[in-house]
Amino acid sequence: MTATLNGLGYGRDLIDAALRNAVARLDPDTGLVVSYHLGWCDPQGNPLTGNGGKAIRPIMTLLAARACGAADTAALPGAVAVELVHNFSLVHDDLMDRDRERRHRATVWAVWGDATAVLAGDMMLSLAHDVLLESDSPHAAPAGRVIAAATRDLIRGQAQDIAFERRNDVGLQECLDMAFGKTGALLGASSAVGAVLAGADEPTVAAMSDYGRHVGLAFQLVDDVLGIWGEPEITGKPVYSDLRSHKKSLPITWTLEQDDTTASELREWLAAEPDSMVTESELRSVATLIDHSGARDWTLAEARRRVELAQRALDSIDLLTTPRAALCDLAQYIVDREA
């Protein structure tokens, strides 16, 4: 093992090649849409470079397998599967939220329409299970069950997220539960699948799952901060995107639970129907209101606490030192990122 295990780019070339091989199995029309979403080409199919995602989930899968003593190749089908499931959720999420931009360019539904976005997402979910179950790993079936359970939890979390937009009585604990499903479940599966495909015992798989779920919640906490205060030129999303859609994100929900005038003002603002014509000045004022409540500080502090819990989960099991350190680096990246 080398020092590259400590970098976020660990295994990217291996993951990218395997992901491209999987997508090549799709029909040409769907393959174009999926390739565009993954940042490999423009809408006409002309090749592009450097516009893909962070690949946190598949990297986590490879590192978890390494930490349990297995080679990258043992966990590669699982890494491809979790990345496909993640991107299925992104394509559908953009459609449901009517977000027109991701990673500084038009989203799938904005280019090809709603129906194509639904079908492209469905195809990636189906392909994820094919890739894993067609591998020659003796652990493919239990790994597939982990991913299937996480997908159900992810969809549950997304359903809660949408339902929360129509409610003004969402509690912080409900919001945390939603985030554990929407984001924590798949990150928990990403690390657990690496351990499963490495042939690890049940306590190790459980600890890896805990690690990933805590990292996932930290990711969502930071994402919610970026959804209000992030810089569009860095995040690739519209300014104040979560406020514009009245999302009950964690900073907003925390603010609403405070017994003060800030909570009352925010509650009154949220009670009105979301308005596509709301001005940036008004949204900036609401963002400042939430910030002054202490919500941003609480959210970032909670993200750091979740990273500490993730590291404790790793401490509870016997792992190889270098990939374990890389998993800790990955968790730290989550709370330090700006996009």
The third-level CATH topology is: Farnesyl Diphosphate Synthase
Under CATH at level 1, the class stands as Mainly Alpha
- Nearest-integer average pLDDT: 92
Give the strand order of the largest sheet, numbering strands 1, 2, ... along the chain.
Answer: 1-2
CATH architecture: Orthogonal Bundle
From the N-terminal CA to the C-terminal CA, the straight-line distance is 29 Å
Please give the structural blueprint.
Layout: H1 12-23, H2 28-37, H3 56-67, H4 72-97, E1 101-102, E2 105-106, H5 108-112, H6 114-133, H7 140-164, H8 172-197, H9 202-229, H10 232-235, H11 241-244, H12 250-256, H13 261-271, H14 280-292, H15 295-315, H16 321-336
Antiparallel strand pairs: 1-2
Description of the molecule:
Helix 3 (56-67) runs antiparallel to helix 16. It contains 16 helices and 2 strands. It starts with 11 loop residues before the first helix and ends with a helix. A two-stranded antiparallel ribbon has the order 1-2. The radius of gyration is 20 Å and the shape is globular. The chain has a single domain, classed as Farnesyl Diphosphate Synthase (Orthogonal Bundle), CATH 1.10.600.10. It has 339 residues and is an all-alpha fold.
List keywords for this structure.
single chain; 339 residues; mainly alpha; Farnesyl Diphosphate Synthase; two-stranded antiparallel sheet; 16 helices; 2 strands; 71% helix
Summarize the structure.
This protein is mostly helical. The protein is 71% helix and 1% strand.
